[in-house]
Amino acid sequence: MDYINAFWVGGLICLLVQILMEKTKMMPGRIMVLLVVTGALISALGWYEPFLEFAGAGASVPLLGFGNILMKGVKEAVGKEGFLGIFMGGFQAGAVGCSAALVFGYLASLIFKPKMKK
Question: Which domain holds residue 94?
Fold first, then answer.
């Protein structure tokens, strides 16, 4: 049942984002920021953990999950460092994911040859 919940929740998130892209004039970058901020807001309200337990990877893989990770990092850093944790926590929590994206993106650029659009 975990796989089914992850599949339909992740698919629903993707469907809603696709509808948002098709029906509005929002640029993809703004939609991505909206997803991260929404994930952080849901996490700040304390609703993301129950959602994550229900949906598993369907909730943690999309950009909503990245917003949740950033917010968790900020909460932990504020508890340890105080006010400065607001600025440090998100960087510490999101560093591994961002680093992996850069490394794997670079490796993919070495393996595959880009094609220019005409």
Answer: 2-111
